Each structure stands twice: as C-alpha cells, then as structure tokens.
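Problem: given the chain below (143 residues), write out its structure.
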Amino acid sequence: MQSMQYNIVEYDDSKHREQVIGLWQGVFGYGAAHNQPGVAIDKKVENGDGLFFVAEKDGEVIGTVMGGYDGHRGWIYSIAVRPECQKRGVGSGLLGFIQSKLMELGCLKVNLQIMEGNEAVQEFYLANGYSVEQRVSMGKKLY
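Solution.
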C-alpha cells in the first residue's frame, strides 16, 4: 500500500480523548480493568511527561503512541493505528517519532512488550529494527 500523509501532535485531552478511547478499544479490545483506555489516559496525562502523541489526518486521530523514560530505560506503549490506515507508514512513523523524543531525553535503550502469539505485531517491530530479547516479564497488580 501507498504511504499516507498525516501529522503527529502531542495528545490534547480536550480534543483527542474520545477518539483515542475508540481507537484503543477497537485495536486492543481491552478486558482487564487496569487497562481500560480512560484509566490509562488519565494516568499518562497526570504524569505530565509529554510523551503521548497522536497521528492526525484531516483532524481525525488515526494512530497513537506513548513513551516512558525513567532515566535508565525507555519504554514504548500503545502504538495503535486504525485498521484502514495500517501498512501505510503510520505505525513506523509513530515509532520513529517516539524513539526520537526518547533520544532527546538521553535514552540509550528502549523496551516494549507485546502479547505472546501476536505474530503480526512482532513482525512489525522486527521490520523496524527490534529483536526478541530472552527475558521473563513479570507483573503485579497494585490495586
């Protein structure tokens, strides 16, 4: 498919919230309460680190990316692209954009997690220079 023109801008809660929630529900299909889009958005906005961006085309949100940086490692979260806009450079553009923002902060290495068995997303990251690292990912819900 041919690449498309779009703009990447910082997330604005008053402008983008409902569109991002709809996109994430459609792309990610969240089931767990701690992953609900509104909760994730609220926590990121509250954090105020400025590492939350949307891709817009004609005023509509077509993609998202969030980053995190703790001074040691960078993290990439919530890359989502509308299905009709996938395979047109939007995801790779968002990935490159957040990587640049993390590098500006001095980040030397970035990590991300994907669900086991999600080969399409794994192929996307492999095509963008990422590799599978042998790690055990552990988590604990704190609520």
